[in-house]
Structure formats: C-alpha cells, structure tokens
Design goal:
Strand order of the largest sheet: 3-2-1-4-5-6
CATH superfamily of the largest domain: HAD superfamily/HAD-like
Oligomer: single chain
CATH class of the largest domain: Alpha Beta
Largest sheet: 6 strands, parallel
Radius of gyration: 17 Å
Strand content: 5-15%
Structural class: alpha/beta
Number of domains: 2
Length: 216
C-alpha cells in the first residue's frame, strides 16, 4: 500500500468498490455461507444469495433467518471469513491494470466498500492491490461522505448502490457489468458510464482526462 497523502484538489483521485468490481468474491462468499449454514443448521439458498452481491450482509441474511439471529450470524460470518474466503478469491480481470491506469496519471486510488474492513484488507493484501486508502463498512449513499472526504472525482462500481454513492459525492459514476446489476439497471440508477469490465477502464480514463476532465 502506497503511503497515504492528503487529497489535493488538483490531483486525480479514483475510488473503486471491492466486491465484484476489483475482486470476484463469489467463490469465497459461497464457502463462508456453506460453513455458516452448517453451523446454524440452516439450508441457505447459496446460489440465490451470491447472484447479486453488494448489499450489506445483514440485508442478504434477513430473508433467511429470524430477526434476532441476524446480528450473531453476521458476527460469525465475519469470523469464518478469513479461513474460507481469502485464498479462493482472485482479482477481477483487468483490476490491476485499472489501478495502474490511475497511477500513470499520478492519481491516488481509494477502495470504498461495504465489506467488514479487516476482511477487506485481507483481500487487498492477498491480491496485492497498490492502493492508498481503504474504507470499509460503508454502503450506498454513505459512500458519498468518504469519496468526498478523499477528494474522489470518479467512483467505479458494479451495483446500483455504488452509483448512489458516486452521485452523493458529486463524482462521476463509472459502472462495470461484472456484478449482479444489468446495464439497464445501472443506467436507470443514474450512472454516467457503463463499461463491460475493468479491461476497458484504462483506455476510458485516458480519453476522459485527455478531454480536459477535472482532476487530471
């Protein structure tokens, strides 16, 4: 992780979501849910639950557990996570190149995610992402405060709630089609740009900044 320098108004700062944007969380998430369900004696619909990752864990679990069981299940999920979900989760194709694309323009990279921060840090360390700042346990419009504080002019995500966070920060919303949301859903949510994957991000960023966009 590069030393964290305070954001400057004239410096490019790009934020990225983590799950299904920078990393393919499904294999690890599936393994943790299987372990959790086994401990709880509950048969969780694993495929359904991993088909649209993005919302906080308590919301994902709520339809399947009694209300008073949700908070303990969230705590147990987070405890199980390091042993089941880190080694099996890889960087998304193009993720390292997307980060390097920001670096080529002298930019800072911040990761803003709803994931429990210690587990998010394990992923960042495991795949070797070169980032400046990680902020966890923020979701939807709540990401806006972090993005604004860090000076991000662009936020890249895969979910409609990532779009909400970007718009709340008055940042440009760039969406990739690697998560559970369709192009139509992302456009309807207000995203400014839709890319098939992070493979397309470096060229898009080059063109965006060449056009005189602020923050370059």
């Amino acid at each position: 992780m590069t030393a964290d320098a305070g954001p400057a108004a004239s410096r490019l700062v790009v934020g990225f979501d983590l799950d299904m944007t920078l990393i393919d969380t499904v294999p690890g998430f599936r393994r943790v849910l299987l372990a959790l369900g086994s401990e709880l004696g509950v048969e969780l619909p694993i495929e359904e639950m991993t088909s649209a990752l993005g919302p906080p864990l308590d919301l994902i679990l709520r339809p399947h557990l009694a209300e008073d069981a949700i908070a303990p299940a969230v705590d147990r999920f987070r405890a199980l996570y390091p042993d089941h979900a880190i080694e099996t989760v890889a960087a998304m194709a193009g993720a390292h190149e997307a980060i390097a694309g920001v670096r080529r323009h002298g930019g800072r990279v911040v990761v803003v995610t709803g994931k429990f921060t210690p587990n998010a840090q394990l992923h960042v360390d495991h795949v070797g992402f070169d980032i400046d700042h990680l902020e966890g346990k923020v979701w939807g419009v709540g990401k806006g405060d972090v993005l604004r504080r860090e000076g991000a002019s662009i936020y890249v995500g895969d979910h409609v709630h990532d779009v909400e966070g970007a718009l709340a920060a008055d940042a440009l919303s760039v969406s990739v089609l690697t998560g559970g949301c369709s192009r139509e859903q992302l456009v309807e949510a207000g995203t400014h740009v839709v890319l098939d994957s992070l493979h397309d991000f470096p060229a898009w960023l080059d063109d965006h900044l060449a056009a005189g966009a602020p923050g370059g």
